[in-house]
Structures are given as structure tokens and as C-alpha cells.
Amino acid sequence: RVKSQTARLTYALPTPPEPRQGRAYVLSVGVDAYEHPSWPTLHYAVADATATAQTLTERLNHCGEYREVVTVSLTAPVGAASTATRANVQAALQRLAGAVQPEDLVLICWSGHGYADRGGVFHLMTSDLGQTGEPTSPEVLGRGVSSDDLSAWLRDVDAGELALVIDACHSAASVEGEGFKPGPLGSRGLGQLAYDKGMSVLAASQAEQPASEDAQLGHGLLTYALVDEGLGAAKAADAQGLVTLKGWLEYGVERVPK
Asked: d(Cα 135, Cα 96) in Å, to the nearest integer?
């Protein structure tokens, strides 16, 4: 517990760096259909992902702050081929790691089933969970994407602004098995992920609470609040009429319980 005198060095840049206009990256994932028979089909997760990708792309292009908007949409609709697999999510995030710069924005939006295990690790369920095994066994959960996976895959994604929005819809979930509780989103795993990456994480519910889809709205409640109201109706705008990332997420926090 003995420390030397602190050494200090002042470094003068040879030339001031030129300001650079960043890129915006949007990864939108929606999973309605699951291979595993115990994970119920959802109705509006794909609609959530599609609307989120389209609206964010339009708004980010319109604002003029980014020189390019790169959008990747991975979905698993009922009765059609799925792109919302673990391998595709991993590949998309690892490609970001080699492309993102400090002036960039990265938004990851996910709609589908989620589950927190007893160790507090949160799991986002992709379509390719297989057809065998207990629905919350390590074997099945390992086929999805855990908060530990996200931390590892995002380790080298050093964006100036990074946010994860999770609209995990569980109103129809009825997975069999004693003690099974779908979607405790306020889990330690997500909190650790936010801390590790300095990122904003907005989840549709707190621990032990279900998140809801709504047939009349055709979306999960969080997606509807953020996309249709917050952006579409500009209800997340500040006094100057601007929608910032912070203001947009805070609108979801305030609006969804109502």
C-alpha cells in the first residue's frame, strides 16, 4: 500500500483532429416463432422489429447528423424462414466491432421472449432453440443469447452512444415447468451489461413482471410507446422539438406503465 509520486505528462497534439460525422447502426431483432414447442408463439415481435427498423432508419436519415445509417433486421416470422438465430446475431455484433468508431451511434432493439436464470444471467431467446430438453435447461438457454454473450460480443464495440432496448412480450407465455417465470427483465445480468459497456438498457418490465403485447395496437407496449408515439407522434421531443436518445428512452420509462 505504498505509492510513488504521480508522474504527469502533457501531450500537445501536432494538429487538431478534424471533426468527423459518424454513422448510425441499427440492429433490430424480432422473434415470433420458436423451434422449441414449450416456448409459445408470439404475435407482434416481428411487427415490432420491422416498425422499429423502418422508423429509426427514416428518422436518423432525416435528422442529418449521421453520414450513413446502417440497418440490419433479423426476424423469425410464423410460417417463414428465420434469420433471428444465435449465429446471425453474433455475426452482426462482431461485424460492428470492426466497424464502429467513437463518433458513431449503435441501437440494438429486441422483441421476443426473455428469461433470467437463478444466477441472474438474462437470456434472449432466438428462434433456433432446438426441439428437445427442458425449456429453461442450460442446454436450451445456451442456444439463445445471454447477457454474458452480449457483453463478450459488444466488448470491442466502442460507440459514442450505445443503447439496448428489449421488448420481451410474455402476456401469452405458458411454458410448463415448476418455478418457470418468463421474462424477469430487471435482472442483474442486464445491469452488469450496462455497467460493463457504459450503455443504456431499457427493458419492458421489471423483475417478476410480464411485458405485454396488445392486439389493438399490434405491438408490444414498449415498442408502441417508443416508435409510434415517441417518434411517430414526436411525443418524446424536447422543448426545441428534438428527440434525443436520452429523451426517447425516458419517454418509454414514463409512458409504458401508464
From this structure: 31
Cα distance between residue 192 and residue 181, in whole Å: 21
Buried b (16+ CB within 10 A) or exposed e, 180-214: ebbbbbebebbebbbeebebbbbbbbebeebbbbe
Name 59's Cβ contacts closer than 8 Å, sequence gap at least 6: 231, 243
pLDDT of residue 19: 83
- Phi, psi values for residue 191, rounded to 5°: -65, -40
- The residue with cell 408490444 is 220
Is 174 or 168 the better-scoring residue by pLDDT?
A: 168
DSSP-assigned letter for residue 16: P
| Beta bridge mates, 20 | none
CA pair distance 232, 242, nearest whole angstrom: 13
